[in-house]
Amino acid sequence: MIENLLLSLESLRANKMRSFLTMLGIIIGISSVIAVISVGNAMTSSVTNQFAEFGINNVTVGMQMRAEEASGQFDTATAKVPKDSDRISNEQLDTLVSRFPEIETLSLSEDAGRGKAKLARKYSNVSITGVNVGYAKVNKVKMAEGRNISEADIKGMRNVIVISDRAADALYGSNTAAIGNNMIIYTDKAIKQFTVIGVYTYTQPSGMGAMASDKDLETSSYIPVSTAKKDSQYKGFTSLTVVPRTGTDLNAFTDKISVYLSKLYEKNKEWESYAYNMKSELESTNSMMKTLSLAVAAVAGIALIVGGIGVMNIMLVSVTERTHEIGVRKALGAKDAHIRTQFVAEAVVLSVTGGLIGITLGLILGFTGSKLIGADFVLSPYIILGTVLFSMFIGIFFGYYPANKAAKLNPIDALRYE
């Protein structure tokens, strides 16, 4: 077997250009398949990570206008706003938590405006959001200094605030210096004063916001939701996020909450409730992307068939060229199996060599494509193993006919062939 491999490699070296052109179809096919699947896996991984940032295992609960009411609401300026009696009240939230032991925590938020925090000649642009205790967990707010909003802050409607490390650095010089200091925020409607109790680590978002300079960057700041509600005419909520306990059947839990909320809104003629999770959306998106990747890879795989035909064609030419050599070997005692094995080995070496080149090129293209779309490159060893085995299969499948033809040559006729 080793001798056959050495003879095969010698044959490749003797006809470098012809061998390369023969392998070209396999190289293109293999590289295309690997590149497409690698980019597809990178996109799937990127989408999964993006969903995870939003909380794939969380349930979003809220209210929306009924379809028959919303049909005429095209103008957002005159669109109906839910009355406080339509919104989800604090009492209903307490009932929801007590009714469903699967709930670990809730995340509530209230927009409290935006403005400019000033200290002497220093300033920082901030948006103010009223939050509850569960908000930090759901939105992954990581504290750098001090503490977060507590239940006592919410019950006492305290004028306390948690700011970003960017705002702390711009106004006070450091995170530590910010704790305990007053922050005055000038908004369009009022001047608000808070005491800084914590500083969180700001994460630069992607998109247009990331283009702002540090000086003009607007970062979020958090106050107790009850404090934010003091200045709001609405005491209830239009939406919230529910975090279920670990091990909860997410879809079944979502359905249970949906049924419960539907009963609360069954007599409301204008508004209805909704509850959904992003897990099913992620599964559907991933399934669609995988199907698309496989479809494109299947089209690219046609080049492999073309490459296999090229292998068969060149092996038939090789058999014709080496007819006299075959006759000599048979005259010296070589059996049909020896001749067949030699030519199959040559076809396999040709295909596997093309496959290895295709794998290398495909990985380079896949890595480059992943970086161009801003996704992390995902390397699947199963794809590489599969392509190597498939290359060997192509060599055996398309090389067997020429090899068998060579093996069946009559030694006398072969010796006479010029």
Structure report:
The chain has 418 residues and is α+β, with helices and mostly antiparallel strands. The strands form two sheets. Strands 3, 4, 5, 6, 7, 8 and 9 form a seven-stranded mixed sheet that branches. Strands 2-10-1-11 form a four-stranded antiparallel sheet. Helix 12 runs antiparallel to helix 14. The radius of gyration is 34 Å and the shape is elongated. About 1% of the residues have low confidence.
Query: Residue share in helices?
Result: 40-55%
Order of helices and strands: HHEHHEEEHEHEHHEEEHEHEHHHHHH
Determine the strand fraction and express it as a percent band: 15-25%
The average pLDDT score comes to: 84
- Secondary structural class: alpha+beta
Unreliable spans: 207-211
Task: Count every helix, treating DSSP H or I runs of 4 or more residues as helices.
Answer: 16
Q: Given the C-alpha coordinates, what overall shape results?
A: elongated
Major sheet summary line: 7 strands, mixed
Beta-strand segment tally: 11
> What oligomeric arrangement do these chains adopt?
single chain
N/C terminus separation = 29 Å
Radius of gyration: 34 Å
